[in-house]
Amino acid sequence: MRRIYFDHNATTPVHPGAKEAMAPFLAEVFGNPSSAHQAGREAREPVEKARVQVASLINAEPEEIVFTSGGTEGDNMAVKGVLFNFLGKGGHIITTAVEHPAVIETFRFAERFLGFKATYLPVDNSGMPDPDDLRKAMRADTVLVSIMAANNETGNIFPVKEMAGIARQRGVLFHTDAVQVAGKMPVDVKDLDVDLLTASGHKFNAPKGAGFQFIKKGISTMPAALLSGGHQERGMRSGTENVPGIVALGAACELARAGMQEKAQRIGRMRDRLEQAILGRVPETVLNGHRENRIYNTSNISFKYIEAEAVLQMLDMRGICVSTGSACSSETGEPSHVLQAMGLEPTCSRGAIRFSLGLGNTEDDVDYCLEILPPVVERLQKMSPLFPAK
């Protein structure tokens, strides 16, 4: 059966170039990068090369890059790592109501166990935060602001530069979860002027288990290490490095830089054609998110009066992989916290499907989806007691 993968915001296939780069480090070059002998040096050199490649992707310095296992670890490193410096002193932290669970749950942990007070900034009905709300939420005891660069469900690109500037004016550390933008669109940490940035390789065609954390040189409050041990990564992330994953991550960064503009144009055209056709052909559909200020690969569409899970399953039976929201929260069965924060009615939020395109997708994939999707939705709408009678 034909398979169409439209869930690239959840994870992506490994780029052939990244796979080729990592292959020797799965067997032939197996030394521990911390070892002083030749086998160790053979492993250390490519790790440091990858650090340069990663730094180049976001216009950082190599010494500002710490390798991690991915986005969840990076978000925890940023939030908990900073807050551990303020234990016993109390304090205030700010994020948005639509962050990835890796940030939302870490903020809740900080409230419950560390004694911090948190503010969750609202979003408008298009899913965008207002920088003025951040300005109003700042307090004398605010110690950290964490705002994502782009939302994983709607694709909305947030005004990180402006919001980081507000935090900078108050001398407050600013972290951004850039998991959905790194490798997809240009990111310049010097221009954004953020203190901490999190990214994950498997979102842009590196293997799972390899990510990176940007920690600005000279940061006023250095995050405390979450993992204690052998002092790898300059003491920020102990544990033997994932050499194959790091090498592949570096290669994926280099490949992303070289092909970013062409990829954005090609995938953006496919996304737009898919989206416009669905909204034009399928009745009772609603686009969730900002129409213009979105990542080029993402479209979140509600099919009113039906359950998204039923749409997902019926498409899956026909070889089309989509998502009902964040892969990290898809098993809860609860409506998306992002769509709830946007004020969507249950008839909309429960029928939301995310289409996210990427490497390997073709115009034929779009055609196939447009052939299969409308009759699937029509069948489910006819079965729904909520669907308005014509």
Protein architecture, described:
The protein is of the alpha/beta class. The protein has helices spanning 16-22, 38-58, 71-83, 101-113, 131-137, 160-169, 189-192, 243-281, 308-317, 337-341, 346-349, 363-383; strands at 4-5, 65-68, 92-96, 117-121, 142-146, 173-177, 196-200, 211-215, 285-288, 298-303, 320-321, 352-356. The protein has 2 domains: 4-12 and 260-383, Aspartate Aminotransferase, domain 1; 16-254, Aspartate Aminotransferase, domain 2 (3-Layer(aba) Sandwich), CATH 3.40.640. Strands 2-8-7-6-5-3-4 form a 7-stranded mixed sheet, with helices on both faces. The chain has a 3-stranded antiparallel sheet with strand order 9-10-12. Strands 1-11 form a two-stranded parallel sheet. Helix 4 (101-113) links the parallel strand 3 (92-96) and strand 4. It is globular. It starts with a strand and ends in a 7-residue tail after the last helix.
List the main descriptive attributes of the protein structure presented here.
single chain; 390 residues; alpha/beta; Aspartate Aminotransferase, domain 1; 2 domains; seven-stranded mixed β-sheet; three-stranded antiparallel β-sheet
Number of strands: 12
- In round numbers, the mean pLDDT is 95
Q: Beta-strand level of the residues, as a percent range?
A: 5-15%
Helical percent range? 25-40%
Structural Rg: 22 Å
Under the CATH scheme, which class of the largest domain? Alpha Beta
Q: What order do the helices and strands come in, and which of them pair?
A:
Blueprint: E1 4-5, H1 16-22, H2 38-58, E2 65-68, H3 71-83, E3 92-96, H4 101-113, E4 117-121, H5 131-137, E5 142-146, H6 160-169, E6 173-177, H7 189-192, E7 196-200, E8 211-215, H8 243-281, E9 285-288, E10 298-303, H9 308-317, E11 320-321, H10 337-341, H11 346-349, E12 352-356, H12 363-383
Parallel strand pairs: 1-11, 3-4, 3-5, 5-6, 6-7
Antiparallel strand pairs: 2-8, 7-8, 9-10, 10-12
Helix pairs in contact: 1-8, 2-8, 3-4, 8-12, 9-12
